[in-house]
Amino acid sequence: MSNLPSTRLRRYHGHGSRDSNGQDEDEDEDEDDEDETSETQPVLMTKSSRLKPINRRQAASDGFRDRSIQHIHLEEEDIQLTFTGYRFLKIRISIYYLACLLSGGIVFLLGRWMPHRYISFVAKKCSMGQAEAVVVENEWGQMTTEPISTKYYGGPVSSVFSPEQMVKEIDDDDEGYEDAASTKIMHDMRYFDYQYIRFIFNPVAQAFMQNSQWKDPEWSSIAKCERGLERETHQERALVFGANVIDVQEKTAGQLLIQEVLHPFYIFQVFSMALWFADDYYYYAACILVISTVSVISELIETKKTMRRMRNMSKFTCNVKVCRTGRWRYVGSEELVPGDVFEITDSELSVFPCDAVLLTGDCIVNESMLTGESVPVSKIPLTDRALQLLDLSLSNIPSDIARHFLFSGTKIVRARPGTSAIPKKALRTDDAEYGMNQPLRGLAMVVRTGFNTTKGALIRSMLFPKPKDFQFYRDSFRFIGILACIAFCGFLVSTVNFVRMGVPYRLMIIKALDLITIVVPPALPATMSIGTSFAIARLKRSNIFCISPTRVNIGGKIDCMCFDKTGTLTEDGLDVLGVQCGDTNTSIFGPLLKRVKDMRSAPDSMQDRCTSLLYAMATCHSVKSLGGELIGDPLDLKMFDFTHWILEEGGLTSNSAGGSQAAPSHNTGPAGGIVSTVVRPPGAKQFNLEEVLSHHPSQMSESESFLELGIIRCFEFVSSLRRMSVIVKKLHSPGMDVYVKGAPEAMVDICLKETLPADYKERLSYYTHHGYRVIACGTKSMPALSFVKAQRIKREQVESELTFLGFIIFENKLKPTTAPVVATLANARIRQVMCTGDNVLTAISVSRECGLINKTVDVYAPRFLDGHSTAEESRIIWENIDDNQMTLDSLTLKAKTGNSGVGREYPSFAHRSNEYVLAVTGDVFRWMVDFAPTSTLNRMLVRGQIFARMSPDEKHELVENLQAIGYCVGFCGDGANDCGALKAADIGISLSEAEASVAAPFTSRSNDIDCVVKVIQEGRAALVTSFSCFKYMALYSIIQFTTVSFLYAFASNLGDFQFLYIDLALILPIAVFMGRTEAFPMLSPKRPTAKLVSKKVLTSLIGQIVIQGCFQATLFWTVRQQEWYMPPKYERGQKNIECFENTSLFFLSIFQYLLVAIVFSVGPPYRKPMVSNRPFMFITAGLVLLSASIVLIPPTWLASFLQLLSIPFSFRLFILLMAASNLGLAMASEHYIFPAIASAIGSILSHSRRNSGKHRQASVQQEPEYRQTRIMVDSTISPSISAPLMSTAKKEGNRNGSTSSKIYKDVEDEMSRF
User: Is position 1306 annotated as part of the catalytic site?
Assistant: First the structure.
């Protein structure tokens, strides 16, 4: 991703601290979310191209830098780390161990849960050069302590670190620095491993650094790289880089058990069980102990299975044929180090064991594991220039380097040999196998190993995912804190009451502490994940696979969905509509030719160009032949199929007899043979090598039956150039021809102006307006070009001064499900954005066809009046695509007055003049991000519906910019060019045939966007289920807390088996099956809230608590007024279970647990009705009948078992009537009363915010100045409109949990007032 200017970053931080005012209560989401950010919103940060220490903190005001602290940015993971060096204090460590022993392990637990306190007590900060351990803290506050290891190295510092890292950042005297600087030798290698990343201490820079981007200075040419390594060099690098294996370390069962058991919730469970045993609740405590033990063991087994599965998936070793000290031998792949040269054509090699670059030969690989793209990718040998441009510090390999790059873990579909770049005289004569007669090989050189590879980085991202700061998870822990406060209050009240009653101190403490175990249920965290588990299972049945469960709930909050176009909204395989060539007589385009036969019978004035265009279609592509089947880019395949020609390829050229022979080495290029691919029309004879090399072309036959074209060299498609080209040798023709195809806009600049038809723009506009995809082709003849020169000629020389041939027009067919899905999302008021690399007019046409934008809505596209995307002073004009007389103001992006509106393809209406969208091109997007004012950028992001000609990096950046203004963004693409955007999005959905791809959190095996609706539906259902389960567990705790509090009034309590019946018979099955309700099939325009601390949720929760408490209080008072009532007799030191209050409250409470589950079983619009959840209905009905039988006609043994007293049958009926009334009131309140109360509160708060917003705007207008960017605010804008969008807030933001307003809502409100 391109770096954002620092000014842009500060603006986003600034917006992040503002409040959103004036929110409409009927917006498309819960009104309580108006101040909520995108749940996983990142703050945009500049990424350095090198991973090195940055900006150490000031230790004192005099400018002395703190040598114990180091900041580093990991570009692969895009996270900030802080390293702090420590030396351990032996005396304090001894004191700590003694305190752990004397406290019975309590100090140990506190030190484990509060690592900051622990490390500050047992260790002292020191410089990195003297540190014994490093405390690593990430931006979310998670910290680990890593011990520093030391090995003797004795090699040069330059063999470990790149030249850019050899910069001293601290100007002070240091013995280690002086020694390293003077001798350039690193005697001892000090390092530590953090999350499988090795950080090595650089004695020159006096800091810990990665060496994953290290590049050997000797890699200056392909010939030097092919020599391989000497044995001593290999041993040296093996010490630095370690083994080439991605080996995920499995924790032992003991380590996992300790990690699980020492979690605060399990410690709380242990504390609770100890308390219950002490209070003689033996049966209940034993049952919970058994359940907890089974839970821990099952979770341990599942964790072990997951770790073993991850290890098996990531670990790969094989035998590799490597050139060491000039000799070829087999070694284990784990012994590979950067600089090793290995043979890719070896029959035993099927998967690349490391990241490497291709030196000779060519190969086709399947990269679906990394990208999700199922189409095999062709790789070509590295050039000297590409070798110089190779930058291993980049997290994403650029596309122009990726075509030479072999990624670890990708499968070899086919590999062919090539000729070595080393001259014969340079070969070693003592080679044990071949000596001077080296066979042809396909060679690759190792550049990255182990976890430093691209596969290793992806495995790390799965092992250590970024914590998602989702609002629901934050609020849930806050609410647990509130419950704990309630428990503490109950503890104090009950303690005072027990003291008044003279309860023994031991019993008093036990009973008071028991209240805490009731109010904070230990099973609460597990219960909240039930809905997510069911959702993932349902998605899997729909062939949608999820590798990040936390993203499921986030899917329920999506309010902006971005789509790639080709292969996502439209079909992968575009059909060729036809071709259109220029007519030399009329200087305009001729008729559309829909068949090859039509091209051959074209008029004489078009014949030459038609023939050349046919040759271009047959040769200018990336199609390969594998086992008789053609593979490659779908567009290229359709284009080649249109010609009906035959393609053959091989590293060996074919002779006239049909056999194969090696091309003479003096004429071969880097690809291995003179001709890597040949094409010929149906029925033509094969290419004859002797004829091609013959110096007597006049002797050749001119018959078309010998027509064959050999592709000598291919310049692959580059997204920045938007074109590709080939150098072709035609049989019977001296010299060679060049064929180029690319985007029509790009071809204009490299074609001779006189060869362009006069109606070039009109024809292009017509096709793109009607949704066709257009490719332009050009050619030029190079009669003097030889084979040797063809391999050395530069791309710029080839792709210049071309003769324009014509257009190839492709039909861009929509997928059948595209329009219905787009309509569904639109009805759900989810914003939809198209993000494509295609032409902007084609994208607009497809958008109109599928309904992404309305056909009557004005669409404005930008162009540069002067300048370009990298010039700050460039000027942009926004023109209506149907009438270029209609324009937008370049700053405010509002329609200018006096626009004509004449000559439009679609009608427009004056009263809808504010309803327009923007179609932004990639170059303008780049300029807007880098140089435009923040207010203009935000308006563009809000109004932009189509983003065309976007590179993969720009797609990634678009997602991050949308998140930065408050959207919760989803992205759906094919996984090939969209990896960055898929990972950056809050939910990324890859359309891939692979079962699961690390390219995105979600992978759909169905090749249409139906999966988007399914993911959002399940996300909403899971989110609502999590809320329901949380509210249910909270109410269960409060109901039981209320019951026990009433009984504590006279030192009574619930009985052992009463607790068992409630927790095991009632709560457990209800909590499990309550979350099984499926997602509602329709998407509602209103999104579910993600905030527990919101008006709607709190009103419901507090209201239900009051209702349940009032019913229990009423029954408690009523039973004491009965004539048969007998006050309980308090016996000092006894439990005093059996009493009328206990029996009555138990009877009512067992119904309350069930009715609360019914009330909180939310149905439409996010889940199906409760009755659709049959297991839940059967269990609830069964438990209601069981509880009713316990109340009305309990068997004598059961009454004794539950310690119940006999009460009159009429009062039992009264309790049932109370339970029914309780259910009715709770249901009515939940559906009618509480929403009305929440709405009233919302209206009051909204009115209050509007008033405070007006005061803030007035204060902003009185500010003497506020930050702007280069362009002054248009004087026509009202200050009240422009001020909120300017960057007036703080310079810094907080990445770990800061909440910013939804800026896009401010922009929408502002633009609606224009």
Answer: no
